[in-house]
Amino acid sequence: MPNGIPAHARERLKGLRTAAHATGVFTSDFSVNEFLLVRKAGFEPIGLCMGTCVYHVGYQFGSWSKNQELEVLSKAMYHARELAMARMRAEAAAMGADGIVGVKLTIKRLEWDEHLLEFIAIGTGVVHGEGHKGFRAHDGGPFTSDLSGQDFWSLLHSGYRPVEMVMGSCVYHVAHRGVLSGMATVGRNVELENFTSAMYEAREIAVERMQAEAAAAQAEGVVGVDIHEGSHVWKPHVIEFFAIGTAVVPLDQKIAPEQIADPMLVLSVND
Amino acid sequence: MSGLPDDHELRVAEIQTALRAGQVPSATRTRLEAARAGRVPWVATLTPAELRAVRSHGLRPIAAITATCWMHYGWSWTEGHAQGWNAALARLKEEAKAAGANAVLDVKMRTIPLTVEHSMDFTLIGTAVRFEELPPSNDPVVATVPALEFVKLLEADVVATGIAIGAQYDFLSDWTGSTSQTFAGNTETSVLSQFWEHLRQRAHAELRRNAAGTGNGVLAHVNFGQLFKIESNGQPKRFLGRQIVVATTVDAPRPRKPANMPWGPPPWGESKARPAIPHEIGMVVDMCAGRTPLAGRPRHHQSYASNEREGAI
User: Fold this and answer.
1) pTM for this model (two decimals)
2) Who among A58, A79, A255 is closest to B266 (CB)?
């Protein structure tokens, strides 16, 4: 260290404690690197925000030989996540956060009932260090984003800020093949066009829904999108396509970086 | 043939007496005091790269130190976790003091994967270090982060100080049967949602209270939650919920009250007086093929495999 141990740290390491911190205790699930980078980006963590929803997913059966969306399941998967996220965001708003960084959305099955799913949303509420309110979402509430602290720093330095975590869900029933069509393809390699087109349609619906949310949040784009394919408690031919990402808008001209730095190329040679 | 020393039984008895009195067992104390005086070689859990980082910041390793508390849950499994870790932490601090340390770095939380009836061991392993320019501390900090991260925090005037725990459990009795769904449609099971929300709010409130004793913030949570349904004949359905949160506490100078500037200075022109990282940060693209050392390393703690993720999100 160029100038020795910083003053505050020096006192602490000598075994001296400041009696009580006037600012109270912040909680976060940041790693050390995330913590440092979020602060480097000009923000301070204030508290962990969490939302939970235990949801009973309704029944729906797809027709054996038909490709179709199972709307009851789509709605359930969307609604439950929305409830969990809204509760998390309400906690953040209550503590005066400007946004939530590093949101993790998880789903757990409750073992005693195959129709019960537990949805959890966790993230760290942050405030701007200088009290700048220009980072809030379009509705004046805290922004939400699933970006890590590192990604958050990088996003700001590329001239954008996060607005809202956006998502779209489509639970889809892929048709079973009939006996005759099975016999017709014995000994031949053929594309199962029925299956392919099912994947296309379901994915398309999920992405369109996510994009509609981004448009509603007045975003310019969506970063870090992932499209998951999952099957939670359903029969083998039922698949959920779930698209999720962070909607972003360009930073205001007054605060945007003048020049976006080029990344440096390195070759790490240690094994 | 037994490989144990002849005075094995005496040693075990002495270890028990010392731990009961909140002291370091005498064999360990002798070793640590020798290391403190430089009569025996220093021992560190650090890698060579980490050793370099601590040496460049004026730290000297003294000894690898450990503490264990093997706890039986006669009263409560959940609360036993807080008790077990707190007991191990107190013992680790005693060893650090005996070694004349200012801090214990690279502290890992370990548990032997054995299932011994209703019990578990709570073990901490770390490296006691001394700051060359400071006198030994009578309240050494316990940093549950690797050495490099400790040094990075230190440069930002932040000290990793210890472990905070919030462990809470509760029972829910469903007298009205509202958790039994007969309706086939989509509904939230509000009773369980609320039960869960309250339980983890209590765990997090306890975490904050617990953290206030050693710092003013926490990083790197472990969130461990379990919800069970308890079957019993003729009784209403009961649920047991457990929530354990474990985190690293930090002592950080906090910013002044946000200035009332609606469109103030540039947002990430961080406060000049206290840079979060006193180095330029640039982006790099690693041209290495395959796994790169710039990304990823094994888990630091292994006591709680996070049970957060089950299936796709």
Assistant:
1) 0.81
2) A255
